[in-house]
């Protein structure tokens, strides 16, 4: 159960890491996870128990993908993204078991966004930077940067700060995406040092 010093990442003995995948330094891959060929996972990520990363998927740096998530082909996860437990991604709008014309539709999770537990992300959508999707939501349209959505189908319920707290309940975007705790022009926007 120790990190392989040549590889620079930790993988639990039950994890399956296919040849031809790229995994960044400091990343931790836990029990029964499966990382497919031609996928890439950045530095300092955590993949929880039973996470599946499909062929060709890219996951950026400093991401956390919680237990029971399958990240299917066509999904791109940028840096500093949180994906809660049992989030579901789709990649085909018209799935059939024996479809001769299976077409993958791309889904992108932009820098710093968070997806709540048990949410479903329908393919062809983009989740904006630092946006937040409430637990159990079904996302069927694009989510704007810093937007907070929830429900089935997910609908706009506000705007969030980079820390995740609500900064506005208005329909229109506020002048500043800073909550009460981060009210200064520089507060909450500084990059945290790498750990």
Write up what this structure looks like.
There is one protein chain. The chain has 195 residues and is mainly beta. Helices cover 0% and strands 28% of the residues. It has a ten-stranded mixed beta sheet with strand order 1-4-7-10-13-16-19-21-22-23, with no helix packed on it. Strands 3-6-9-12-15-18 form a six-stranded parallel beta sheet, with no helix packed on it.
Summarize the structure.
The chain has 195 residues and is mainly beta. The protein has no helices and 23 strands.
Query: How many individual β-strands?
Result: 23
Termini separation comes to 21 Å
Helix content: under 10%
Q: Roughly how many Å is the radius of gyration?
A: 17 Å
Element order: H for helix, E for strand: EEEEEEEEEEEEEEEEEEEEEEE
List the strand order in the largest sheet.
Answer: 1-4-7-10-13-16-19-21-22-23
Question: In percent terms, what proportion of residues is strand?
Answer: 25-35%
The number of helical segments is: 0
* Secondary-structure-derived class: mainly beta
Write the layout of secondary structure elements.
Elements: E1 10-11, E2 16-17, E3 22-23, E4 28-29, E5 34-35, E6 40-41, E7 46-47, E8 52-53, E9 58-59, E10 64-65, E11 70-71, E12 75-77, E13 82-83, E14 88-89, E15 107-109, E16 114-115, E17 120-121, E18 126-127, E19 132-133, E20 138-139, E21 147-150, E22 155-160, E23 166-168
Parallel strand pairs: 1-4, 2-5, 3-6, 4-7, 5-8, 6-9, 7-10, 8-11, 9-12, 10-13, 12-15, 13-16, 14-17, 15-18, 16-19, 17-20, 19-21
Antiparallel strand pairs: 21-22, 22-23
